[in-house]
Design goal:
Helices cover 58% and strands 0% of the residues. It has helices at 2-18, 24-36, 43-46, 65-79, 98-101, 104-112, 114-120, 122-131, 142-159.
Length: 168
Amino acid sequence: MKNLTLFSLALFSILLFSCGSGNNESNDATSQNQEINEPEVPKSIAEGKGIGEITQVELSDEIDTGMVKMGKSIYDMKCSACHKLTDQRVVGPGFQGVTNRRKPEWIMNMITNVEVMLDQDPAAQKMLEECLTRMPNQNVSIGDARNILEFLRNNDMETAGEKDGATS
């Protein structure tokens, strides 16, 4: 009976020490390191390009009038109810000068990947705080987003006298 009691006590002691606090120091150090380290900002956000498929947009100096025409028809159908071509805010911000404030990749990512942009991109989140309404996903293709971008570049030339200021 004494052997069984000693065996049980020894087994209990082994279990107690194996589950003991020996690992807490390394867990505490890991927790402290995680609290100290800021989450890494994705490179595309740091570069002002937003989040999405569009990582590089080639712009020519000349405005493509065919793209502008297509972009205007898309704007009229999907954007004009909430966005004006001036700096006037309606539901969403006005578009005047947008190509001078935002990189072309950011503009196209905002058009094509709006949910992720509003959830993760600081600039998009700031606009959401100002406008208080989430932009709906209009299911715009990348090609159509490029046409809208060209339309916005043309609008900026006409209303602000310059375009693509954010690319320099």
